[in-house]
Amino acid sequence: MNQIRQNILSGEMAAGDSLPSIRQLAKELQVSVITTKRAYEELEKEQLIDSVVGKGCFVSGANKEFIREQRMKRLEEKMMDIIRESKELSMSRQEVLDHLSILFEEEDLL
Question: How far is the CA of 65 from the CAs of 20, 42, 62, in angstroms?
Fold first, then answer.
């Protein structure tokens, strides 16, 4: 799901591009058809893909700005979880920011 999402947002996959069938993708990834179906359903909820009965799944023509807004909303929810957790740990705002900066630097090194 994350790979497909990233490919769409990066422009590697364009509106109208077809995705592998649910069964084909499940076989390639060696996962359950149900798992693949759920992933496609989630991508459809995010308006990243469209399902056409009898034809398959295709990259949606949805506005990339809308998609970015949706991802930002999810990111903000995760950040709120971090803020709540840091308060439970009695961390100051500066400690949280310092820790985040360190993690950014470590990620850049990878």
Answer: 25, 18, 9
Q: Which fold has domain 2-59?
A: Arc Repressor Mutant, subunit A (1.10.10)
| DSSP codes of every residue in 50-91 | EEETTTEEEE----HHHHHHHHHHHHHHHHHHHHHHHHHTT-
| Structure confidence by residue, pLDDT tens digits, 72-85 | 888 999 999 999 99
Distance in angstroms (rounded) separating the CA atoms of residues 95 and 108 = 20
Per-domain boundaries in the chain: 2-59, 64-109
Task: Note the pTM of the prediction, 2 decimals.
Answer: 0.59
Return the structure tokens found at 101: 């900066």
Q: Which two tokens stand for residue 75?
A: 């990111």
